[in-house]
Amino acid sequence: MRRHVEPKAHAARPPPMMPKRIMSVVKTALILALLAVAASAAPPTTCGAKDDYGKALCAYQRRNFIEAEAAFRAILDKGERDATAIRSMYFLARTDMKLGRFEEAAPLLIRIYSLDPGFYGAWNCDFLLGECRKAMGKD
Prior knowledge:
Elements: H1 20-39, H2 52-61, H3 65-77, H4 83-98, H5 102-115, H6 117-122, H7 125-135
Helix pairs in contact: 2-3, 2-4, 3-4, 4-5, 5-7
């Protein structure tokens, strides 16, 4: 006597599983491989620059915000009003935001608008100013 089997009854069975021990070894190997790739990543492309702005930007990209803040502030303290100064002011504001100093970043972004409205719009400073205001509880 034959048993009646529903069509595609085998599809309801779960797929065969690999033993847990093998899966933990595979996971560990994958994590180690990803860590090795991250550790061997090339430094940011700006880190070869010899000028003050390039060095400050390299510190920012390496997430060394204290050094970046000092370097961007030193550029601004020179009092020049060129493109490098505007970009330094922008990254000083971003650095202050990274350090949680939104009260210091907001006036810098407003100053960028007063100096160069085109830069302010092109570099999305309006969004950053909104983030500062939100963090300060003003919006």
